[in-house]
Amino acid sequence: MHFPDNCRYTEDHEWIRLESGNIAYVGITDFAQSELGELVYVEVETVGQTIEAHGVFGTVEAVKTTSDLFMPVKAKVLEFNPDIDDARGGNPALINEDPYGKGWIVKIEVANLDDLNALMDAAAYQAHLA
What is the tens place of the pLDDT at every residue in 14-38? Predict the structure, then answer.
């Protein structure tokens, strides 16, 4: 499994990658997508809303199960990735194929960049899984 060094990770198996300023992307980890199996639906109805850290911002549905998506830090949801939104012609399985790239779930505006320091780096996340 792959866990990029430029991401921070949560115990709930979400990742966050800071892009520029306080803009970041959030998705689920390679571990999470492999545990869930083939993803068939993603729902995010929180665009434009500010979500507290650990708050639910959406759900992912696999063939066998549905799982909540948790915000790693307090942030405003700016965008839901259209490439994984089947309602807009996207393919949720992109999360399985490329969880840290084309399979990102939401683009966010982080409220406080210092909150990222409380999240795990790649090495700590791998140790968490062990």
Answer: 999 999 999 999 999 999 999 999 9
pLDDT score recorded for residue 1: 87
**Which pLDDT score is estimated for 121?**
98
Which fold would CATH assign to domain 8-113? Answer: OB fold (Dihydrolipoamide Acetyltransferase, E2P) (2.40.50)
Q: Quick check: pTM over 0.90?
A: yes
Q: SS3 string of the chain? A: CCCCCCCEECCCCEEEEEEECCEEEEEECHHHHHHHCCEEEEECCCCCCEECCCCEEEEEEECCCEEEEECCCCEEEEEECHHHCHHHCCCCCHHHHCCCCCCCCEEEEECCHHHHHHCECHHHHHHHHC
| Domain residue spans of the chain | 8-113
